[in-house]
Design goal:
The chain has about 800 residues and is mostly beta strands. The chain folds into two domains: about 725 residues, TonB-dependent receptor, beta-barrel domain (Maltoporin, Chain A, Beta Barrel); about 55 residues, no CATH class. The protein is about 10% helix and about 50% strand. It is built from nine helices and 43 strands. The strands form nine sheets. It has a 22-stranded antiparallel beta barrel. Strands 3-8-9-6-7 form a five-stranded mixed beta sheet. A three-stranded mixed beta sheet has the order 14-13-18, with no helix packed on it. The radius of gyration is 29 Å and the shape is globular.
Length: about 800
């Protein structure tokens, strides 16, 4: 629906003279498919937020990242590359920074599962509606829908010829072109073809080379064929391809800690502590290239009382990334190069009966096979050795260490040393599901649904590790040095051995501190400099997970305008493998991949995989629609067990299960039209989350117990408001719209101090549109008050005591011209 059509629909009851405003309005009925059948939004007993195409056009919602400004239950975070994006619903979600960690929010486009964010973040084209379905949806949607689903439905080809061409220009030299054409190809076939081009200069500046970062450079094509050979048969073929080729993403300096002087001493620069200057010194320009495409074929068959649906899809994704690992202009760890290749095949069958009688039902099955290949390489630069020497407090420290160990001079921290690993994962998944709606009375309906899920993964990893320093075992070295000194002092071996053994795991205090522990191991202080440790390689490892998920819903029609419901549902996300250079062995914290001992001083720990994630939710809902107002509300308690947490600690990511977490919350959506010319909307999400149990969580100074604490990154209050005024003057239709998002202040992550890494959002967007015959023009602005806030924060890479963060997008504005035909 274009802007002109949206305006005229809103003004359908206007008559005669310019700016004639009626005193009565009607709320339109919205149809959704959140339960894989068509139901009105007011009838479906599920918490759903729906975004219509006219809102997308008026608010200039370009992609899912923009969507969060009008759906407060949804949060989207973009991190170090264009595709390292997390979707969160009701405060929870994961899937970025590791191709082995699948998202907890399932994204479906025209019924096809998009398994990774790279295939989800493209520009929104041909949108009929977007449904944000909240709470676990594993029963009907199956794969990785443990906390919610984003269900995107696009327009079908039309039997009537038509289309549009659209161009936008804006600040930061933004240029967007979009177009669509649709029409018949004979009596039984129709087609549509849509394309987009999106370019923009970056709003972040790399002062090292003067280039922009956080730019936009992407394009996409989408084609459809609709064949309806009879009234009982329909086929829909969809093909799409998109490319992202961007320099992204910029990182700001939040705290210039004690290591900053060492960075500058080796020739590097760090921009002062001003995150919203959006400036940095990066000796490697961050580059992202992502190709994403796929084919899907949906067949629908009317079998009389039954309906059969088949959806077959194949998708492929190829991506390459390179960025400055240390986010400074010093040649410390200059590159982090990644290649990613993912092929996904899915097949779904559904058989449904939605006819007469008290019981309707649907049964089906979903199969998915996915192959992942991920190559990741990192290496040391020329400045890392002098940088490490400064941190060690002695410019000749490593010369002496090499001599003592009999190593060739200069071999420690040699330029070009590093690690390059190849990961492979084969994933086979299937689910069998069924759901029944039983009309107990004319007003009460009981819904029972269940699904059996089976997820099997086979993974392997190999690496080529050349960083000699990171291969050193300082516990053994400390033991040998202490033992030799004790023996030379005349102690017998039976006495010196136990003393040296205990001393080998006893760290010394800071330089100059007195008294020092007796026979302490000074080498343990060098562990944090083992920046690129060997991968704990594994071959042909397997996991097999299975679970029965279910939902029970009781809906009651209080009146023709008011429905209430109670629901209990479960969700599930299978084992996630750690396909990264931070892979750790099985076992407890501190296990070293080098020597078979438990080392509490090892700087990173975790496991090769995180156990399955399980979700339960109890929900009470209300849905009312009257002539001029619609109210949807949900009160819920959601319990997440073994949430798959993946947090950066400055030298790598730690993957762990987060025990148990409970969130109590209230969601409310209100739409009010006092007159046809004025539409008001308020959406709010109010959350009270708590970790019931999370020992061994990642804190600022190491592992902490977060049991009983509030999880980081979850806003207590998120409220979105919008007002749209429609008017008409002769042949000119127009609208004025403003929307505002407020999110209260919250600590971003548990291992960055709240005084350093927190955020509060106050974002104002607005637009003004005119329509004359087949022409539309919209003047728009996003984040008009230039509200600054952080998207995320983390300990700076290999710079203890320093912190970095990702700032939000500043104010953008532009104008869009559209011609429909």
């Amino acid at each position: 629906m274009n802007t002109r059509t949206a305006v005229r629909c809103a003004l359908a009851t206007l008559a005669g003279s310019a700016l004639t405003l009626p005193v009565y309005a009607q709320i339109d009925e919205i149809v959704v498919t959140a339960t894989k059948r068509e139901q009105t939004l007011q009838d479906v007993p599920v918490a759903v937020s729906v975004v219509q195409p006219e809102v997308i056009a008026q608010a200039q919602i370009i992609d899912i990242l923009d969507l969060q400004s009008i759906v407060p239950s949804l949060r989207v975070t973009q991190l170090q590359t264009s595709t390292q994006t997390n979707f969160l619903i009701r405060g929870f979600g994961n899937g970025a920074n590791n191709p082995g960690i699948e998202p907890a929010v399932g994204v479906f486009i025209d019924g096809v599962y998009r398994s990774r964010s790279a295939s989800q973040i493209g520009d929104l084209l041909d949108i009929e509606r977007i449904e944000v379905v909240k709470g676990p949806q594993s029963t009907l949607f199956g794969k990785n829908a443990s906390v919610g689903v984003i269900n995107i439905v696009t327009q079908r080809p039309s039997r009537e010829f038509g289309g549009h061409a659209e161009a936008s220009i804006g600040n930061y030299n933004q240029r967007i072109l979009q177009g669509r054409v649709t029409g018949p190809l004979g009596e039984t076939t129709a087609f549509s073809l849509t394309g987009s081009l999106n370019k923009r200069d970056g709003y972040f500046r790399n002062l090292f080379n003067g280039e922009d970062v956080n730019e936009r450079d992407r394009w996409s094509l989408r084609g459809q064929l609709l064949w309806e050979p009879s009234d009982t048969q329909s086929w829909r073929l969809i093909g799409d391809f998109s490319r992202i080729e961007e320099d992204c993403c910029g990182v700001s300096n939040l705290v210039d800690g004690p290591t900053g002087a060492a960075v500058r001493a080796v020739g590097g620069d760090i921009f002062p502590e001003d995150p919203f200057a959006r400036r940095a010194f990066l000796d490697v320009q961050p580059e992202n290239k992502v190709d994403n495409g796929g084919l899907s074929l949906q067949g629908d068959f009317d079998l009389g009382a039954l309906t059969l649906t088949s959806i077959t899809a194949f998708r492929t994704q190829e991506a390459s990334f390179d960025y400055d690992t240390d986010f400074t202009s010093a040649d410390l760890v200059p590159t982090n190069q990644s290649l990613q290749d993912i092929d996904t095949y899915t097949q779904e069958f559904r058989l449904a009966y939605f006819g007469d009688g008290p019981i309707t039902w649907q049964v089906g099955g979903l199969f998915m096979r996915e192959e992942v290949e991920y190559i990741n390489g990192i290496e040391l630069g020329s400045a890392f050795r002098p940088y490490a020497s400064l941190l060690a407090g002695n410019p000749a420290a490593f010369d002496g260490l090499e001599a003592a160990l009999g190593l060739p001079p200069g071999i420690l921290f040699g330029e070009g040393q590093g690690n390059r690993a190849v990961f492979e994962q084969d994933n086979n998944f299937f689910s069998v599901f069924g759901q029944m709606d039983w009309a107990l009375t004319d007003r009460a309906t009981l819904t029972l649904g269940a699904a059996y899920l089976n997820d099997r993964k086979k993974v392997s990893a190999t690496d080529n590790h050349t960083d000699v320093f990171s291969q050193l075992n300082f516990v053994d070295i400390g033991f040998a040095v202490t033992l030799d000194g004790l023996l030379q002092a005349g102690l017998p071996l039976e006495v010196a051995g136990p003393i040296a053994d205990q001393g080998s795991v006893t760290p010394c205090g800071p330089n100059g501190a007195a008294p020092q522990p007796p026979n302490c191991n000074p080498f343990l202080g060098l562990y944090p400099l083992q920046f690129i440790i060997p991968l704990d390689g594994f071959q042909n490892e397997r996991t097999s997970d299975s679970r029965v998920n279910y939902n029970i819903r009781l809906a009651y029609e209080v009146s023709d305008n008011l429905n209430v419901y109670a629901a209990w549902a479960t969700g599930y996300k299978a084992t996630s493998w750690n396909l990264s250079l931070d892979t750790r062995p099985f076992g407890g914290p501190g296990s070293s991949p080098l020597g078979g001992f438990d080392n509490p001083f090892y700087p990173r720990f975790g496991t090769r995989f995180a156990d399955p994630e399980r979700v339960e939710v109890l929900e009470l809902g209300l849905k009312g629609q009257w002539a001029d107002i619609a109210v949807n509300a949900a009160l819920f308690e959601q319990v997440v067990k073994d949430f798959q947490s993946n947090i950066f600690v400055g030298t790598g990511f730690v993957l762990a299960n987060a025990g148990k977490q409970t969130t109590r919350g209230l969601e409310i959506d209100v739409q009010y039209r006092p007159i046809s010319a004025l539409e008001l909307a308020v959406s709010g999400t109010f959350l009270d989350p708590k970790f019931n149990s999370f020992p061994g969580a990642t804190g600022v100074d190491g592992p902490v117990d977060l049991s009983g604490e509030r999880p980081s990154g979850i806003h207590r209050t998120s409220v979105s408001t919008a007002a749209t005024f429609y008017w008409q003057a002769g042949q000119v239709d127009g609208f004025v719209r403003a929307d505002y998002l407020y999110e209260n202040n919250v600590r971003l992550v548990s291992n960055v101090p709240e005084t350093v890494g927190s955020r509060q959002v106050n974002q104002l967007n607005a637009s003004v549109g005119l329509s004359v015959e087949d022409w539309d023009v919209v003047l728009w602005g996003r984040n008009l008050t230039n509200n600054d806030f952080l998207i995320s924060a983390f300990p700076s890479v290999a710079q203890s005591g320093s912190f970095s963060g990702y700032p939000n997008q500043p104010r953008t504005w532009g104008i869009t011209l559209r011609r429909s035909f």
